[in-house]
Amino acid sequence: MPSDETRRLLRAFGVAVTTYEDKVTAHAADGEVRAAGDEARALLREVTAVLDRLRAAAESLRGGTGP
């Protein structure tokens, strides 16, 4: 079951991507689009880090064999 922190991160990431999409489709000012994109990318890095930690934990349970 996902931790509360994972749920919070995924919720924040979803909001950030939606905000970015809204800024792009509304033809917002370049700075607004860039800031929204930067926020989405930063949260994507956090999501990727969670996935990497989970992958490493799964591999250690399997004795280090592939995916």
Outline type: elongated
Largest sheet: none
* Number of self-contained structural domains: 1
- Tally the beta strands: 0
Given as residue ranges, the uncertain stretches (5+ residues, pLDDT < 50) are: none
Rounded to the nearest angstrom, the radius of gyration is: 16 Å
How large is the count of helical segments? 2
Give the amount of beta strand, in percent. Answer: under 5%
How far apart lie the N and C ends? 20 Å
Short structural summary:
With 67 residues, this protein is mainly α.
Topology:
Blueprint: H1 4-25, H2 30-61
Helix pairs in contact: 1-2
Account of the protein in words:
The protein is built from two helices and no strands. With about 70 residues, it is mostly helical. It has one domain (about 5-55). Helix 1 (about 5-25) runs antiparallel to helix 2. The mean pLDDT is about 95.
